[in-house]
Amino acid sequence: MVKVGVLGATGMVGQRFIQLLDSHPDFELTALAASSRSAGKRYEDATTWYLNEEMPEAVKDIIVCDTTPEAMDNDVDIVFSSVPTELAAKIEKDFAKDYVVASNASAHRMKKNIPLVIPEVNPEYLDMIDAQQKENNWDGFIVTNPNCSTIALTLTLKPIVDNFNVKGIRVSTMQAISGAGYNGVPSMAILDNLVPYIGSEEEKMESETLHLLGNYDGEEVKPADFVLSASCHRVPVIDGHTEAVFIELEDDFDIEDVEDKMKNFKALPQELGLYSAPENPIVVKKENDRPQPRMDRNAGNGMAVTVGRLRKDQAFDNSLKYVLVGHNTIRGAAGASVLNAELINDKIL
Known about the structure:
six-stranded parallel sheet; alpha/beta; 14 strands; Dihydrodipicolinate Reductase, domain 2; 12 helices; Rossmann fold; 2 domains; 349 residues
């Protein structure tokens, strides 16, 4: 068993890490770190538990430590980071000197020699790790997962990009409030309302998606060469991001061919049988009124993305459109980091 810890363990994503790691066959959760306000307390006493699932018994008596390498148990091999971005820039580097850091924070995404990875999409980006360690003289390293809305979109794009010539993509998101954290969106701002702006979200989707679907030549990533435009919005849904996707292709196509490529898409995590990998990363629904976040966010234990309303776009030549739903705090956050760690454990450790 690989011993693991969670940084930012008392927050919503930290709690999701704990829920996903409970009874994990490969990882033993032995260390929980949080702010100095929580350090020294039993986890149960330090935490207001937000998830529908009960707090696992195994973590209740763990004493929370400060978010420093000195305070962390040296037997830990992997730390999962859900600390705020403004703190992650320094904290994750401090831990990477000796630990594998599987980060959900945005502080080190898109940086040279730091892999930004979705295991079904670009596992070869892990080849950056050697250069990262040499450059920083680290024994450990940092691997990041993308933004929550980016992950859901990019998973559905992968079989399309691999089999068709993409000219341009437009996406409009309807994002759940849990993506902003428990205190992120005031109730008076979101009830009976929609907020048509999420700070830096559109820029993240546009840059990260092209990066993930690009090509790593051993030294740098060359982004995908099509254009992508995103418009991001917050809606009164607790969990599950919904996205309306519009894709322009270079050539004519059969919609049945696109559907076949999506629903039969499998990749390295499925080949390796990684514990958190869904059997089918993309679930295709035929009903006119699906997907819906309440009904489809938990597909594949929250690790699959559900696609529906897949059809040709009659307004534009060689174009298709569809709607997707992905669980933003599982596949889009903690689950993405856990799957990255499972791939690292299989291929590197």
